[in-house]
Specification:
Length: about 120
């Protein structure tokens, strides 16, 4: 699907306030050494439905040694503890093609932070 709104990789954090309202489900789980996240809702910039998720066996650290890697549309901080807040750095992952977007990249380019409480993963 095409969208008239141009791709923009505007400064991270510009959409945080709106994302807190438009992303309707945000879950971060930790258990057995694995951290996972799931977020869905509407992008605060383009207003298209978006979903970001990832399952990790390692954690991307922020700071001078951070690789800036993203997994399934998100970036994770170290130190997840059940019941404590964690910050997710997400980007729009809608199914729309936005003009001037990089080849093979979905979404409008908006990046935003969401904070949620980590929960204990349910293991069989």
């Amino acid at each position: 699907m095409d969208s008239p709104l141009q791709f923009s990789d505007a400064e991270l954090g510009q959409w945080d306030g709106q994302a807190a309202q438009t992303m309707t489900e945000v879950v971060a789980s930790v258990g057995d050494g694995v951290r996972s996240y799931y977020a869905r809702g509407r992008c605060p910039r383009c207003d298209h439905a978006t979903v970001a998720y990832g399952v990790l066996d390692s954690v991307v650290l922020r700071g001078s040694n951070a690789g800036g890697a993203t997994w399934g549309g998100g970036h994770l901080e170290a130190g997840w503890v059940p019941g404590r807040p964690v910050q997710l750095q997400l980007r729009c992952n809608c199914d729309h093609t936005h003009p001037d977007g990089p080849e093979g990249i979905k979404g409008c380019g908006a990046e935003f932070n969401l904070t949620t409480q980590a929960r204990q993963a349910i293991t069989p």
